[in-house]
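User: Here's a chain of 409 residues. Predict its fold as tokens.
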Amino acid sequence: MARLPATNQAKRVPAAKLRHIALEQQGLLKQVPFGRGKNATQRAIEQLGYVQIDTISVVARAHDHVLHCRVPNYHPDHLVKLQREGKIFEYWYHAAAYLPIRDFRFALPRMRDMASHQERWIRSRDHKLMAEIHKRIVQDGPLRARDFESPQAANSGWWDWKPAKAALEQLFMQGDLMVVGRDGFQKTYDLTERVLAPDVDLRLPSDHEMADYLLHTMLRSHGFVTAKSTTHLRRGKKLRVALKEILDAQLSAGTLVAIRLPSDEIAYADPELLERRAAPATERAAILSPFDNLVILRDRVQAVFDFDFQIECYLSESNRRFGYFCLPLIYRDKLVGRADCKAHRRQSHFEIKHLHVEDQRLASHIDGAFTNTLALAIRRFARFNGCEALSINRTSPHSWLEPLSQALS
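Assistant: Prediction complete.
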């Protein structure tokens, strides 16, 4: 079997070409990449492979924000209906996520490891409590954590909310329960066997099948991948060995080729995708979630977009450079800046605390097309957050404050 190619054998691809490929595969190059409505939301999730769920609500939650960027008339009800119809399910990718139901079998290894306590992430080891909760859901049907609240004191035994919540999450993570809906961020759980349709594939994948799934999920959603990004946050030497074998075989067959990123890291891509003429970048701006699939891998974003991005809400205030919840900004085919925003929903007011224009050409020159296109994107995102009023406090450079304020008004 052939060895993976050395760096000097890999073709260097221009950064502009890589940006176009990445944005097109992500559904961020065109205005309407997947169509409209609930079916478009399903197509977007299937193309991306997963959409991360996050609890932070400074602006629209991550899963809604990601889909809003790709489906023009996206509404959170789309996720509710798709989950109810068994088209998507909630579990773990590298974090909590909505995933296509077609990929359910690839969640089974983690469920197995959770049940056997081989996984480090364990919520509860109280087997008696889990058995009682499981029995109650068998008898009573779908339940939420708050359905296990004690009518007595908070320390009144196993009906205490916190142990019950931990037990529910353990049962969910090990595959005994599935999430069938949410009331805000309160999950409703039911038995897995009552939720899954009979035609869902329940065969446990081999290491080779899992590696193949991860590789082709990443290729479909990103266009080109590195070995490191393919197994991001996945443990196990066998998985990495299997991935290397698949890459070797596909390089030998010519179904994948090695390329060199601007960072000199080796990546792999479909040769037909590299040869295809790139779609033109439209006059479009988008405000991304910090958890967007495009920017979640920091090394990749730096290499391809020359954009140093870090989610700063997890840093101490003194270590933040751009703000608590900065949202990356796309214009045409580049990441050009970021905006620290907050939606004051009760006041219907969307506040831009600080907008940073970082693209050197834009930062040094007031561009009317960019100003108007960005203002449209901001207004659209503000409305999605339930806000009609807009304000912008500060820009860097300062010269952008007046033209952008005028465009927003």
